Every structure is written in C-alpha cells, then in structure tokens.
Recover the amino acids of this structure.
C-alpha cells in the first residue's frame, strides 16, 4: 500500500517542483533545462550501456557469471527511462542509477539472491585470418571422386 501511495504522489511532486522551478527561473529556462537533462542523460546512458555490453561479452567469454553485469545493465536501462521522463525528481533517481558507485550499492542485495547457474558462451563467427597449422584448420583432401554404384559412363 505505501508503494501505491508513493506512485500516486510522485507525479504530483514532479508537477509541483516544475511549477516552483518555473516560477524562479522562468518557463523557457525550465523547459530548456528539462530538454537538456533528457538529452545529456540519454547520451550518458548510451555510453554506459556500451561499456556494460563489452563487460558482459567479456564475462561470458571467460565463463564467469554475468548476473551482476545484467543487473547493472537493467539499472542503466531504468536510469534512461527516468532521465527521459520530464521532471527533476525522476532525473535525480535516474542519475543515482547511472552512477556506478550508487548503482552497485543499489543492486548488491539482488546480486546476493542469485542461485547456482552455469553459463556457456558460444561464438559463431568466422575468422578472416588464414590458419597456419593443419591441426587448427582441419585436414583438407583435394581430389576427384566417382560413386561405384553410378551407372553412367
């Protein structure tokens, strides 16, 4: 029940704060500030997301558990949503989720709840580099063949 109350109170608090800031700074400045925080926040989210994707790929390639990175990636996604929503309170919570120190602190209890899971990484890409040794490339036999049961001349 308290969560529902907070969920209903949040938009009202956002509107109240927008009105207060608009009275002090002016409507145009407030609008520009909201647009700037959304644009800058989404840029920062994109950069952080790319870093986390590289870290996730590395952890999977090494066979380590990616649960922590996945939780942090979800937190960065939520930060992007919060930064895009117009309002200063949501921007504050989005910034808290975007900063690595507070994000790790907020996701730590969820990381402790993970179970025993084995992760396997499979890479299905083809290399354009030439293989030097036959043992790495496999044996290739060149030649012609003809089926014995073939009736054609």
């Amino acid at each position: 029940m308290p969560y529902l109350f907070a969920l209903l109170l949040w938009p009202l608090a956002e509107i109240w704060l927008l009105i207060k800031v608009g009275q002090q700074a002016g409507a145009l400045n407030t609008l520009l500030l909201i647009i700037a925080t959304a644009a800058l926040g989404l840029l920062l989210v994109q950069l952080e997301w790319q870093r986390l994707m590289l870290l996730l790929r590395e952890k999977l390639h090494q066979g380590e558990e990616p649960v922590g990175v996945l939780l942090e990636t979800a937190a960065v996604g939520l930060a992007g949503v919060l930064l895009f929503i117009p309002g200063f309170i949501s921007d504050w919570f989005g910034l808290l989720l975007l900063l690595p120190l507070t994000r790790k602190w907020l996701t730590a209890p969820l990381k402790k709840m993970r179970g025993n899971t084995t992760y396997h990484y499979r890479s299905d890409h083809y290399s354009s580099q030439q293989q030097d040794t036959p043992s790495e490339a496999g044996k290739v036999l060149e030649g012609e063949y003809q089926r014995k049961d073939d009736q054609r001349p």
